[in-house]
């Protein structure tokens, strides 16, 4: 591999940005394509599909054969709130391949006994996210029902371009949240990206069922990126 190509690829991986090493098997030449780069024709369609699936493989395009070596960051799920929903969500997220973290300054809730084997931060979101910024391969779910804890994190997720932003609460609760986010400087278009009420509409009632609905919605948002559908799975 060309040293410059390798350097470019490693830089993208360190920055948690998705990239594909595209190798023309006819002449051996390769190049790095970043997510969002314009690539025309059938090859561009195959690259977009590979970014969504995260799977490497051979593709035929324009009479040539290419190998797409996909490098996609491991998805991260940040949950604001050490609540019953979070307890049910933690093992599900791990099975699904997500690195999960829970942030909640309420030390009575954020305990190792309640959340074994989970990255747990008994701190304010402002402090944690300053050290560990959100990014485009992070999903954020705010489930405390407390604006003092949730609002900053939701605004930070919108600013960072997280692939999923969800918030617990009724439509009435969300309407008040929208007013607060606007006052914090969030744009109306960005606020439209918030999934609220959180989770797919499957009639979930118990914390475990809500956790299933949330994880399913997160997966839908991750796999629909760049597909012509918005973060809510609707036609753009």
From TrEMBL:
Q: Name one Pfam family in it.
A: XdhC_C
- Record Gene3D superfamilies: NAD(P)-binding Rossmann-like Domain (3.40.50.720)
Top-level division of the source organism's lineage: Bacteria
- Domain XdhC Rossmann intervals: 77-218
**UniProt cross-references to InterPro entries, sorted A to Z:** MoCofactor_Util/Proc, XdhC_Rossmann_dom
Q: Which protein are we looking at?
A: Xanthine dehydrogenase accessory factor
């Amino acid at each position: 591999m060309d040293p410059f190509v390798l350097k470019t690829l490693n830089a993208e991986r360190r920055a948690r940005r998705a990239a594909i090493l595209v190798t023309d098997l006819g002449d051996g030449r390769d190049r790095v394509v970043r997510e969002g780069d314009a690539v025309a024709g059938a090859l561009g369609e195959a690259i977009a599909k590979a970014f969504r699936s995260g799977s490497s493989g051979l593709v035929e395009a324009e009479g040539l054969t290419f190998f797409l070596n996909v490098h996609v960051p491991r998805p991260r799920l940040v949950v604001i709130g050490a609540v019953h929903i979070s307890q049910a969500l933690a093992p599900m997220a791990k099975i699904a391949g997500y690195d999960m973290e829970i942030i909640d300054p309420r030390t009575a809730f954020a305990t190792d006994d309640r959340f074994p084997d989970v990255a747990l931060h008994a701190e304010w979101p402002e402090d944690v996210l300053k050290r560990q910024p959100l990014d485009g391969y992070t999903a954020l779910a705010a489930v405390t029902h407390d604006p003092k804890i949730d609002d900053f994190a939701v605004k930070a997720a919108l600013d960072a371009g997280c692939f999923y932003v969800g918030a617990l609460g009724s439509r009435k609760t969300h309407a008040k949240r929208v007013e607060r986010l606007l006052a914090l400087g969030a744009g109306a278009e960005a606020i439209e990206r918030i999934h609220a009420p959180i989770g797919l509409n499957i009639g979930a009632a118990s914390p475990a069922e809500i956790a299933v609905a949330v994880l399913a919605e997160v997966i839908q948002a991750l796999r629909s990126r760049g597909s012509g559908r918005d973060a809510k799975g609707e036609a753009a």
